[in-house]
Amino acid sequence: MVQDFSWKTGAVTLYFEVDAADHVVMKSVRSGEVSRDFARPLPLAEIMFAGTGHWIACDRLIHTTVGKELRFVSYEETVVDKLHRLNVNMKDEESCACVQMTYEIVEGTSVIRSYVSITNEGVSPLVLESVTSLVLPMGSVHSNASWTHEWVLTEGHFDWLGEGRWQERKLDDFFPMLQQEMTGHDPRGEHAVVSTGAWSTGSMAPLAFLENKDAGAVWAFQVEHNGAWRWEVGNNTVDGYFAVSGPTNINHAWTKKLDPNECFTTVPASFVLASTQQEAIANLTQYRRACRRVDSTTTQPRIIFNDYMNTINGDPTTEKLLPLISGAAEVGCEIFVVDCGWYDDSGDWWPSVGEWLPSKTRFPGSKGIVEVMDAIKDAGMIPGLWLEPEVIGVKSPVAQKLPDSAFFQRNGHRVVEQERYILDLRDGSARKHLDDVIDRLVNDYGIGYFKMDYNVSPGSGTDYQADSVGDGMLEHNRAYLDWIDGIHRRYPHVILENCSSGGMREDYAQTSRFQVQSTSDQQDYRLYPAIAATAPVMVAPEQAASWAYPQSSMNAEQTAFNINTTLLGRFFLSGYINRMDKSQKAILRHGIQAYRRFVQPVIEQSVPFWPLGMPMWNDSVIALGLRDDSQSLITVWGRNVNEAQSIAKLHVPQYQYQDICVKPIFPVTDEFTPWSTEWNSEQAVLTVRIPPHEYVSRTFQLTGEGGETTYTHC
């Protein structure tokens, strides 16, 4: 007998069907006014044990024999502290595996988190080779082979210095007409995106979008994991699908042995259905805030100065730092971070990391580094330090003090990557070492901010006391997150920045645990706007720390261009302020004042939007906006535009058919020529004229004034 059941939470409803053979599938999803029905549903979970495989030969996450044979047992709904949860219980009779598919929604959001738990209820071990965290059809309108015409995939390409490069491709490009229906079989191919090692965004984003503009429907999905992952989209003949997982055997050398009564839970995934891509990102932004794992009093952005970028570059000394501390305090910074090298006596800080004791040669006074920390505090700022906690340099004394069990190992040898060993945080001695370091730095020096870096990746993982190298990697990833949670429990008011060679770990498992996310190590201020403008796709705007590094050699427009790159995020400043003249310092102060007046009060409630669409790396004009119920803030960068490119038409649909007030907020001093603007309320387009042949930028505040056609330049 066919059973139907549904789960409704707020604006989201998931509909399920159990057929006469007790197979359970999701039949449709509704989110607000948008819904997708599935002509060919898929199993809720796809699983491969050793000795099972696919029922159609392929390398995909779907079409597994175990997934096809899962039988429905029961479902239950719970609500605990605004977390709504649906568990769908299934069983595979052949393996005696009990499978629980979990969906969760935090009240007030429309993003669904999902994960799978597998318990071995048999008498023999089971060996897992892959498990999905999420599988869903796309819900195409045309239930035939022409469905590929409907959908566009947007995926994010990442690289060191080149983060957040989002590209659109039609699914026709991936899945040509094959006439597979003539064979009676589904096709075998897929577009799979895979991340290996521990740089979760080292090459691609664990987040993507599928958009059907004709249907007004967008799927966004992400992997919430700080290690190896895979997502794929594919052709299921009459519809497309997307599937998400953590590590797999085929991609990551991952297997996991489940003894009788043992349970394994996948890494989480999450998804949302919306009407547009920008609405999906707004929903993700609300979800990211609702699911943070940090003290809420530490999330409001403060103005940060860091001594590294285009400034000291890893060579701090008391002599160099004291003038920078004075300069940072003079312009209004609130946090001062001493970056890498503070612990090194040799002059080569890279292979000496790990002991985390202050250098005596760099800080030669009787008080040592305390002199610098006291100067930061006396200037009214919070002192911060750079750490790369997960590595031990091969020349560090700690490399010999800790046992081999504290490190990643393969084939009986410690893993070495660019003169570093990698700590394995499954090991108690490794955890104790790092806990002792944090305790000492907080209690002895009053550190209130840590910049956590991670500049090497350990490859496939560790085979020491693990079922596979991928298993060792996954368990280390989870142990690292637990270690971060431990810092928050002991020191809830300490602010943590996630810097992994810039933006190499911008996954939500990490960003949910860090108040600040470094977006890049990019050192060319002309390139950075493309990174800064796309950063809110991955993180909440108030987390996105994009560098501004103005220098005394820059003119006023170049200085303002730098400041605008950080203005609509977490204010993140570097540069030799002490070498600047009064007029240059005045621009910095005006930028910080604009941030405090216009951005700080609203950024934690705002959602991002892109008035020119998602920027491409080489775009001459780039724009990023933040909006809430009362206003919008828009930054526009002109990157050496020619005459034809100098007129930018910003689409701001939230003000259609309204009067608006357009107010420049930075820069606005007499040395800057105002940009002319013109508003078309019917088209909801603000035309901005950009001076050609320069690198220039302006930030505007837009507020609605009511009415229908009048435009006011405030």
From TrEMBL:
It comes from the Bacteria. Its EC number is 3.2.1.22. It catalyses: Hydrolysis of terminal, non-reducing alpha-D-galactose residues in alpha-D-galactosides, including galactose oligosaccharides, galactomannans and galactolipids. CDD domains: GH36. Residues 79-172 form the Glycosyl hydrolase family 36 N-terminal domain. Keywords: Glycosidase, Hydrolase. GO terms for biological process: carbohydrate catabolic process. GO terms for molecular function: alpha-galactosidase activity. The keyword Oxidoreductase does not apply. This is alpha-galactosidase. It comes from Bifidobacterium pseudocatenulatum. The gene is rafA_3.
